[in-house]
Design goal:
This protein is an alpha+beta fold. The chain folds into two domains: 6-169, Regulatory protein AraC (Jelly Rolls, Sandwich), CATH 2.60.120.280; 180-286, Arc Repressor Mutant, subunit A (Orthogonal Bundle). Helix content is 48%, strand content 19%. It is built from eleven helices and ten strands. It has helices at 27-31, 106-115, 125-144, 149-169, 180-196, 203-209, 214-225, 229-247, 252-258, 264-275, 279-286, and strands at residues 6-7, 22-26, 36-43, 46-53, 56-60, 63-67, 71-75, 80-85, 90-96, 120-122. α2 crosses α4 (149-169), α3 packs antiparallel against α4 and α8 (229-247) crosses α11. Mean pLDDT is 89; it is low at 12-16.
């Protein structure tokens, strides 16, 4: 079973004390006057691309987004993406591991979960201008490396995430239940699905792990996301299958086994039911 290419944060001469756990780069420096083209891959760290000016295309977990000015992309560890970014784009690229932030701080961890649950955060000029000084300060701290700079960066990150949460709260659909409790339970469910999907595929199994009834769990997901728990489980299985079909050369039976299906023919029927393609046809059409 071949694995999806995983990129790690590069340790550079200016970050010896961070040991590859955090970096921030000026997008202009990254591009160096050329277009940037990254093929399909995944990271083992958080990835934030904040663009003051930008043109290109960003595909995250097989959803395609056009890159515009004042856009912000947020990826969690494990997300698969490919990026085309045109020369002349400006902004900042931040990458960090959980060993750097939140590093065991529950409050900071809750904040990070809230802000990273959507891949794209479109911003207007005013909203981006509120964030830009924070990003610039983080970059300056990272460059200067004065005493205590790591803690200062973490403090700035917390302010940055708080600003993003506020921005999103102002755009919340009033028809959806986005209270702290429901969001916390949805986040918990998502993490459990990621951890256990190869073994557990029934809603009742996740409800038991969360000490909820089937009715309570489905009520939470319907109120917060407009979907049943079963739909979320199916979406994750199909997403993980797509990741391996397009980012590796693993055989279909290997992917099926990786996802907990001993009967590859059943997995093929399941995949076709939810996508309209057999796994091989999907790979041929989209790769």
């Amino acid at each position: 079973m071949k694995k999806i290419p995983i990129r790690q944060i590069r340790t550079t001469s200016i970050e010896p004390h961070l040991s590859g756990s955090f970096t921030i780069r000026d997008v202009s420096d990254v591009l160096a006057g050329k277009d940037l083209i990254h093929e399909l891959h995944r990271h083992d760290y958080y990835y934030i691309l904040a663009l003051q000016k930008g043109k290109g295309k960003h595909e995250i977990d097989f959803t395609s987004y056009q890159v515009h000015d004042h856009s912000l992309f947020f990826l969690r560890p494990g997300n698969v993406h490919q990026l085309t970014l045109k020369a002349g784009s400006t902004g900042y690229l931040i990458q960090f591991k959980t060993s750097f932030y939140p590093a065991g701080d529950k409050t900071s961890g809750d904040l990070l979960r809230k802000v990273s649950n959507k891949h794209l955060c479109p911003l207007d000029v005013k909203s981006f201008q509120r964030l830009l000084p924070i990003l610039t300060s983080i970059h300056q701290e990272f460059t200067d490396m004065n005493e205590g700079y790591q803690e200062v960066i973490k403090a700035y990150l917390r302010i940055f995430f708080t600003e993003l949460v506020r921005h999103r709260q102002n755009r919340i659909d009033p028809k959806m239940d986005n209270t702290p409790y429901t969001q916390e339970r949805v986040d918990e469910l998502s993490e459990l699905i990621v951890m256990h999907i190869a073994k557990y595929k029934q809603v009742a199994q996740y409800a038991k792990m969360m000490n909820l009834s089937l009715f309570q769990l489905n009520a939470i997901t319907k109120a917060s996301l407009g979907k049943t728990c079963s739909e979320l489980i199916n979406e994750h299985i199909i997403l993980e299958a797509k990741r391996h079909l397009l980012a590796t050369s693993s055989q279909v039976n290997q992917i099926a086994y990786h996802l907990g299906y001993e009967d590859a023919s059943y997995f093929i029927r399941y995949f076709r039911k939810h996508t309209g393609y057999t796994p091989e046809a999907f790979r041929h059409h989209f790769k």
